[in-house]
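Sequence in, structure out.
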Amino acid sequence: MSHAAHGPNWPARIGLALLSLLALTVSVALAVTIGEMAIPFDVALKALGNGLFDLGLPVGAIQQGVIFDYRLSRALMAGLCGGALALSGVILQALLRNPLAEPYILGISAGASTGAVAVLILGVGIGGMAVSLSTGAFIGACAALAVVALLAAGTGGASDRVILAGVAASQLFNAATATIVTTLASAEQARGVMFWLLGNFGGVRWPDLWIATPVAFIGFGVCMLHAKALDAFAFGADAAASLGVAVMRVRIVLFATTAVMTAAMVSIVGTIGFVGLVIPHAARFLVGSGHARLLPACLVIGAIFMILADILSRVLVPQQILPIGVVTALFGAPAFALILYRARRPA
């Protein structure tokens, strides 16, 4: 009786989970039907059936290719990218106890971009072996984290100092990327890299999902395993330690998880800002600050937001596809200003 009264409200949670799944499904359905080539929903379903289950339904070859090989893979990648970046943002905000923390602001995205661009243009290798794009992005992300950690430690380690260190690291790695592109890249390489750096789902294909899917879901699993520890960090590192949290181990594991998720997404689609900043705040408004609820909410809301942003990138300007980073900035910059104002406002 008492357990029923005070236990979790499972019907509400199940209903919310089903509603979230429905919203995500509708977002993907919109993504595969909306574009320069208008395709009816029933044709899209047939194309999906052919691609997933080899049903042999009557669909034109062009429509089949557009729906299954281009739009569906693009939509799924957008969802994975949005979810992973939102998770990275909420983890950084919890560990640093700062509402402005996210991979873009802390320089992790910039470091990952530098590593990826170095691989693309310089063809760097280790011990005579070529380094993959994802590995280069991961090395760059870790380098950015190291720079931020050193700068923050030298200035006392307060969360506001960490943010300032992240801004400095971001500028440093952006300058390194610009130097590589302007001095070593051909004109064609420079155009491709600069468009890629603004975020682009146009080149996504199914093999990219075999990298992004395990990274996003394993990262989500690692975060969920540390949900209670993240709740404890809300009271500070000392309070978390007094509650039995292995502070150093948790920080290393979660910072590494954030670096891996960010690096994997940047290596595939380029740099995308503001998702990790805005989505965690929207999720807190909807489900509260408990990380057992907040982490799944960030995963789903981030996925939906990025899928819808990708749709907008294809329809806002006729006959042209905007970089996805431009679309997220259009929404993220005003939200960032609002968050900054609320964070500075006295209680």
